[in-house]
């Protein structure tokens, strides 16, 4: 793989992926923004890799069974949902600072008179607007690839909630988990290489339990953006009630990967096992055990495994994993 990395990884995406755990710790140390402790509803606007952090955030808050009870609505559009009014707190995230949908959603928020607006960006128009209008601003660090800043954004959101007395977290424990995740990277790297080799000429399918479903979604997007292949995701038990029937007549070569948390509901684990038994007659199926440890450790290591697997699949496909040329071409055509 070393030779393929030298030949095809022009943007050194490998080092960016391996630095992802450190982004969480960096945000824990740097972010001092906060929102009103009486905040009752939150809308988070972003597109692509700038919306994913909200899904990851909601996943983590769910699996740790925190007492954080503020609903977070994720908005991936030019305007805000109709239910949003001046009493909502709005977060607007765009690494580039120029994403047109996010800028439009921010303008919509201003029309509706939102009293709390927080902007997260690396710079450009969103930073200019924040400075001009006095909005709280979280400066995203340089990551070369906009989609690779989500560790910092998730860390920033957690820190903001703690700063605002809306969430109680022990950051020393979380940083300890980050160090453990970094120490586990060589093991994860080897697992990712083996997974990537098993996915050559296959369409990746990723399933997970409902509580971890957004990790399956993140893996799917990794395969789209890094390996430049089609990929699909779903969650159990829902997939057992519809999608699996579609595999009666296969129209392509798939490999199903099921992300399994040993602490998942036992009924869900049984469904995973039965599904593996049922579908392995039609396609390769692999149950991937998440790392043993805290929920935060599981989150980071599973995210890294997905990123590295898609990265190595890109190299095996003899393509550069970093650029997203079709997205850039589409923007120009617009």
Structural overview:
It is a single chain. This protein is of the alpha/beta class and 334 residues long. It folds into 2 domains: 31-169, Glucose-6-phosphate isomerase like protein, domain 1 (Rossmann fold, 3-Layer(aba) Sandwich); 182-316, Rossmann fold, CATH 3.40.50.10490. Helix content is 48%, strand content 14%. It contains 13 helices and 9 strands. Helix 11 (266-279) links the parallel strand 8 and strand 9. Helix 3 (20-30) runs parallel beside helix 7, helix 4 (52-63) packs across helix 7 (150-163) and helix 4 (52-63) runs antiparallel to helix 10. The protein starts with a helix and ends with a helix. The mean pLDDT is 95.
Q: How many beta-strand elements? A: 9
State the end-to-end CA separation. 37 Å
Strand order of the largest sheet: 2-1-3-4-5
Per CATH, what is the topology of the largest domain?
Answer: Rossmann fold
Mean pLDDT: 95
Q: What is the level 1 CATH name of the largest domain?
A: Alpha Beta
Instruction: Give a quick account of the main beta sheet: strands, pairing sense, barrel closure.
Output: 5 strands, parallel
Taken in chain order, the helices and strands follow as: HHHEHEEHEHEHHHEHEEHEHH
* Structural shape: globular
Chain oligomer state: single chain
Overall helicity? 40-55%
Low-confidence stretches: none
Please give the radius of gyration in angstroms: 20 Å
Q: What is the CATH-assigned architecture of the largest domain?
A: 3-Layer(aba) Sandwich
Beta-strand percent range = 5-15%
Class per helix and strand makeup = alpha/beta
The DSSP helix count reads 13
């Amino acid at each position: 793989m070393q030779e393929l990395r030298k030949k095809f990884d022009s943007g050194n995406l490998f080092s960016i992926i391996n630095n992802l755990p450190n982004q969480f710790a960096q945000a824990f140390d740097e972010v001092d923004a906060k929102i009103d402790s009486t905040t009752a509803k939150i809308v988070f606007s972003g597109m692509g890799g700038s919306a994913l952090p909200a899904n990851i955030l909601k996943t983590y808050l769910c699996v740790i069974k925190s007492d954080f009870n503020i609903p977070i609505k994720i908005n991936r559009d030019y305007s805000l949902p109709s239910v949003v009014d001046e009493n909502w707190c709005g977060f607007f995230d765009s690494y580039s600072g120029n994403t047109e949908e996010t800028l439009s959603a921010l303008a919509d928020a201003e029309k509706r008179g939102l009293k709390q607006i927080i902007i997260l960006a690396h710079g450009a128009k969103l930073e200019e607007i924040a400075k001009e209008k006095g909005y709280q601003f979280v400066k995203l660090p340089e990551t070369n690839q906009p989609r690779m800043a989500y560790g910092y954004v998730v860390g920033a959101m957690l820190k903001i909630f703690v700063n605002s007395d809306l969430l109680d977290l022990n950051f020393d424990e979380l940083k300890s988990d980050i160090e453990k995740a970094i120490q586990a990277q060589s093991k994860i790297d080897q697992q990712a290489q083996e997974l990537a080799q098993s996915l050559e000429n296959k369409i990746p399918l990723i399933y997970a339990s409902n509580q971890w479903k957004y990790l399956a979604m993140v893996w799917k997007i990794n395969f789209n953006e890094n390996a430049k292949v089609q990929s699909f995701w779903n969650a159990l038990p829902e997939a057992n009630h519809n999608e699996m029937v579609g595999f009666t007549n296969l129209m392509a070569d798939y490999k199903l990967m099921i992300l399994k948390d040993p602490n998942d509901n036992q009924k869900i684990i049984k469904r995973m096992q039965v599904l593996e038994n049922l579908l392995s007659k039609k396609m390769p199926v692999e149950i991937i055990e998440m790392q043993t440890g805290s929920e935060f450790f599981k989150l980071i290591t599973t995210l890294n495994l997905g990123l590295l697997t898609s990265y190595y699949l890109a190299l095996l496909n003899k393509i550069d994993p970093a650029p997203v040329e079709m997205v850039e071409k589409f923007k120009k055509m617009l």
